[in-house]
Design brief:
With about 120 residues, the chain is α/β, with parallel strands linked by helices. The protein has 5 helices and 5 strands, in the order βαβαβαβαβα. Helix 1 packs across helix 5 and helix 2 runs parallel beside helix 3.
Length: about 120
Amino acid sequence: MKKILIIDDEQDLTNMAKIQLELSGFIVDVAFNGTDGIKKVSEFLPDLILLDIRMPDLDGFQVLQKLKEKEETAKIPVVMFTTCSQKEDKEKAYLLGAIDYLTKPVNLSNLGKQVMNVIENKK
């Protein structure tokens, strides 16, 4: 089973996304801020990370940069999962190493399919 880590401070949406992904057959863990997210990546070793941009401690760009700097986490695909829809945010995310960009609100019933497509295309 594929493992997904969601790093997002919006607890209600994160918990709904977690449930939906689990129903789609994924093993899911969550972190509600960037610092915890970075720690969990090393412990959980997910196949894919869904990462919010706007968070209280480290923003998603800082988290992404730190993950890409570490050898053991650099190859884990990261999908930005955010309300930030500005072109500059998308460009910055891709420059820092994100492989996809999902803008909230997302259709949670399609989330499992979208995540599986990203994982399959990464192979």
